[in-house]
Design goal:
Length: 621
């Protein structure tokens, strides 16, 4: 196999050009085989195989730098830098990350995980290069979906003033996680449908270069007139108008053609954008037919493309989806907003039923939140469905545009807590902390699937900023009989005893049930309370629990700093009580990738760890 000849960076340069297509096919088959077992990002990687090969053939790593926007398309890059063996542990605890990691290889020059960051990071590397007097090449690769993020334009605007080489590769597959939306998508579609530009450039520009004596002067003349030339044959030329040199579009599956255009790009003493057209899921029909499902997939059967272990129980996203359609049918003022993830957040059914009240704003969480604020100010009832990890990108908009004005925006926060295999950049473990710091914000977390439904119904009637956070995975269906009405700032005592009180938030209620059973089996008396509200906390319930318990144990799937436990300790510090507190929370650290059950044990929020901590604390009282 050709792939076996690549054991370190730059080994691809020993492969004959006649074998490039064969190598690309081997890489695709390798990725399909490995990801079918481990799970991971398949569609984006299959589409970027030849692009990655061309970059590695055109550059000298690790001296030259490639910054992968988001980074979920970096699997081929990892293969070409000698990490083939690591794919057996891809996204497993202690194994290889599914994203670029500087600690993994010197060829990973910048850690990524969220979108629209690569141009800014690349620009910083370029400036550092120039200050240090170095001459290496810096390339930022960004997808057309990520190009909908405002940060990308801030960086492009900055890059346009440079008088030094900086290459931005636009990997245009007409898809982000879901289908692209908005003006940028329409603009790129227009460029794709303008072969006239590329045909003229191919037949004239490069042909002239080969003419004896007069070829080079003519080419230099064309270069001087390039901007005007492009304006005539490609309407708009958005990137040229911003001050960048535009090259393309180029076939993203033709390695030699890309090598040629990258060679040209390296010679340009300014910012240059290379527009590469690729096909997401290329080489695997199920991934081409279902790009959203194969963006980030669990293990699957290669022959059918179907999940290897299909889930049967509904997850929290399913519950949210069902409730949203019901709410939409009952109130015409309810609108739904997503940042390019209608499938992932469960809004696909709402979109199909109420297309006029559904808004996909692209990968632009900041805009999504302020847009929701405008909708609320206009009399609508907006629900922003977003992953916890991505909501933190819009902290200022939540504070400045929603909460200062006390506007009735509902934040449906999916993937809250530990999410597992995507690692540090995707764990939803900070939302309770950053949202709790904002005045006028209210925060709830359901203990089970029925409470999620009740909380969403409460939220749309509430009339103030409010967040409902719920975890990834199967929805807990225990404690069905405990379904008291939702009252602002009120928790519920589920099992009342004495001595030890477990006060759990959201997903930790299920764990608390198990902890209580274990403590009781060991002879301890134990109360279980469901916090329901993280802000405002139920001060009356806490005061009552203090009277009959020696130890109050808070349990949350959030970092301890700024979390629920810290708020409880602050309150109890101001009241007369002999009760002690123990906070069960995540450490003040980033949690790496791995199976969630393993991660829970590693960070100390699994059953055994909690029981041990509670007993040790209680026995010291």
């Amino acid at each position: 196999m050709l792939l076996e000849q690549i054991t370190k960076e730059n080994d691809i340069k020993n492969i004959s050009p006649a074998d490039y297509n064969t190598l690309a096919e081997e890489i695709r088959q390798f990725l399909i085989e490995k990801i079918s077992v481990t799970g991971g990002h398949l569609g984006s990687n299959l589409g970027a195989v030849e692009l990655t090969m061309a970059l590695h053939l055109s550059l000298n790593l690790p001296q030259d730098k490639i910054i992968w926007d988001v980074g979920h398309q970096s699997y081929t890059h990892k293969l070409l830098t000698g990490r083939r063996e690591g794919f057996d542990t891809l996204r497993k605890y202690g194994g290889m990350s599914g994203f670029p990691k500087r600690k993994e290889s010197p060829c990973d020059c910048f850690d990524t995980g969220h979108s629209s960051t690569s141009i800014s990071a690349g620009l910083g590397l370029v400036r550092a290069r120039d200050i240090l007097g170095e001459s290496n090449t810096i390339v930022s690769v960004i997808g057309d979906g990520a190009l909908t993020g405002g940060m990308a334009y801030e960086a492009l605007n900055n890059a346009s003033r440079m008088e030094t080489n900086f290459i931005v590769v636009l990997n245009d597959n007409n898809m982000s996680i879901s289908e692209n939306v908005g003006g940028i998508s329409k603009y790129l579609n227009n460029v794709r449908m303008a072969p006239k530009y590329w045909d003229i450039k191919e037949s004239i520009y490069y042909s002239l270069l080969g003419m004896p004596k007069y070829g080079k002067p003519l080419v230099e003349g064309i270069q001087r007139a390039k901007n005007s030339f492009k304006q005539l044959v490609v309407p708009g030329m958005f990137f040229e108008d911003m001050g960048l040199t535009y090259l393309g579009p180029v076939d993203g599956h033709n390695v030699e053609e890309m090598i040629r255009i990258f060679s040209e790009a390296k010679k340009i003493p300014r910012g240059v954008l290379v527009h590469v057209l690729t096909e997401k899921g290329r080489g695997y029909e199920p991934a081409k037919r279902h790009p959203a499902r194969f963006h980030g997939t669990e293990p699957f059967d290669v022959e059918t493309g179907l999940p290897a272990h299909p889930g049967t129980a509904p997850n929290y996203t399913d519950i949210f989806s069902t409730v949203m359609t019901k709410l939409g049918s009952r109130d015409e003022r309810i609108v739904a907003i997503t940042a390019a993830m209608p499938d992932g957040t469960g809004l696909k059914r709402f979109r199909n039923l109420y297309p006029q009240r559904f808004f996909d704003v692209g990968i632009a969480e900041e805009h999504a939140v302020t847009f929701a604020a405008g909708l609320a100010a206009g009399g609508m009832k907006p629900i922003v469905a977003v992953y916890s990890s991505f909501l933190q990108r819009s902290y200022d908009q939540i504070l400045h545009d929603v909460c200062i004005q006390d506007l009735p925006v509902v934040f449906a926060i999916d993937r809250a807590g530990l999410v597992g295999s995507d690692g540090e950049t995707h764990q939803g473990i900070f939302d309770l902390s950053y949202l709790s710091s904002i005045p006028n914000m209210h925060i709830m977390a359901p203990k089970n699937k029925w409470e999620l439904s009740d909380m969403l119904k409460f939220s749309v009637k509430f009339g103030h900023p409010i967040a409902v956070r719920y975890p990834r995975g199967a929805a807990y269906d225990g404690l069905k009989e405990y379904r008291a009405p939702i009252v602002l700032g009120k928790g519920e005592v589920i099992y009342k005893e004495s001595e030890i009180a477990l006060i759990a938030v959201g997903s930790m209620v299920k764990t608390a049930v198990e902890v209580r059973e274990e403590l009781i089996s060991r002879g301890y008396s134990c109360t279980l309370a469901n916090a329901r509200f993280v802000k405002p906390i139920d001060e009356e319930m806490l005061s009552e629990l203090c009277k009959e318990h020696r130890l109050l144990v808070t349990m949350e799937e959030n970092v301890s700093s700024g979390g629920f436990g810290e708020r409880v300790r602050t309150f109890l510090g101001g009241v007369q009580t002999k009760a002690q507190t123990l906070s069960i929370a995540l450490p003040d650290a980033y949690v790496e990738h791995g199976n969630v059950d393993i991660l829970r044990k590693e960070v100390g929020i699994d059953l055994d760890s909690i029981v041990k901590k509670v007993i040790e604390k209680y026995e010291t009282l």
